[in-house]
Amino acid sequence: EKQAEDSNSPECSKPGTMDLKFTSSRKYISISVPSKSQAMSPHIKSVDDVVVLGMNLSKFSKPAQFFICVSGVFMFYLIYGYLQELIFSVEGFKPFGWYLTLVQFGFYSIFGLIELQLIQDKRRRIPGKTYMIIAFLTVGTMGLSNTSLGYLNYPTQVIFKCCKLIPVMIGGVFIQGKRYNIVDVSAALCMSLGLIWFTLADSTVAPNFNLTGVVLISLALCADAVIGNVQEKAMKLHNGSNSEMVLYSYSIGFVYILFGLACTSGLSPAVTFCSKHPVQTYGYAFLFSLTGYFGISFVLALIKIFGALLAVTVTTGRKAMSIVLSFLFFAKPFTLQYVWSGLLVVLGIFLNVYSKNMDKIKLPSLLGLWKKSVEERKSRTLSQTV
Which UniProt keywords apply (predicted)? Predict the structure, then answer.
């Protein structure tokens, strides 16, 4: 009778509430279940859904998801790299790398605003001060990277981008006092030697090689190594979305670059030049920005579904393909030293990935292979005897 009265009590009659009461104690546990009419937060609703360009990949099988993500990464980023080098191949455009970054930031801000309007939660979660820091680092990363193409070949720039591990490890040692294992050190050593070898080859065969480009891309690499940690920490701490991060960081960065170009009198010559070549500058810049924006969406989806290990492998293959296409579509001197130094950098990337996933990647040791071969010989001898 006591239980029957409790079950008919007003507390248990409320929708979405279930009370578990015990006769031996006055304490009870209340479990609240939201009703169907209550709207769930879009951040919670989309935990199991991976939506890229309005397409829900969760409805497809794993092989189909992998094929779609890899196809998107290769297609959009290969076009991105081709258009970036094509813009700088326009005669007279090389001094205007910062203006290209300004136009790119403007397009990214528009894309982020459109994407933010398509989701339900439009609130800004990350503080403005954090966005000012992220915007400054983003300006340094993309601005210096675009400007370096006025002094370096595109393959050399891509090789430098593959070696982000080097400034990350140096910063970890001097700032955080970290210690790295022998695999990490070997990875950094392979990347450093490959990078030096590739740069020396570029300085030997390229008639317009300039050390300024090396300094610019190195500074861009340092900023790129810092910005990833800052973005990840901010998004996890404040639960911010990708579209929010893109909109505010690139719009603030747009103001930074606009103010800098106005102060250095670099805005007027760039606008004058681009107005004379609107298709080769603004037209290519729009496609360049659009493909870059789409490409990062597929990379994030690849990381979310299959993990960072497979994503790094795919993006490394994409960068290698970009270098090959650069030599095929754009006339530039070539030497076999490019191949050997590039393979050395790829070896460093593999060692870095292996170091972070040693528990997942089990490479057989020489002793294990020798024991296995001995056991196989013994089993074959025993079978022949029988």
Answer: Membrane, Transmembrane, Transmembrane helix, Transport
Cα dihedral sign for 249, 254, 257, 262?
Answer: negative
Q: Which two tokens stand for residue 377?
A: 């010989």
Model pLDDT for residues 73-123, shown as the tens digit of each residue: 889 988 988 888 888 888 888 888 899 999 999 998 898 888 777 765 667
Cβ atoms of residues 139 and 257 within 8 Å: yes
The CA-atom distances, in angstroms, between 302 and each of 167, 169, 293, 364 are: 25, 25, 15, 28
Range list of β-strands (E), 98-231: none
Query: d(Cα 168, Cα 221) in Å, to the nearest integer?
Result: 9
Question: Are 65 and 305 a contacting pair, CB within 8 Å?
Answer: yes
CA nearest 43: which of 123, 130, 127?
A: 123
Place of tokens 């304490």: 27
CB-based contacts of 169: which residues, under 8 Å, 6+ apart? 178, 180, 184, 188
C-alpha to C-alpha distance for 225 and 234, rounded to whole angstroms:
15
Task: Identify the DSSP state of 365.
Answer: P
Could you count the other beta carbons within 10 Å of the beta carbon of residue 368? 11
Phi-psi region of 384 (alpha: psi -120 to 50; beta: other; left: phi over 0): alpha
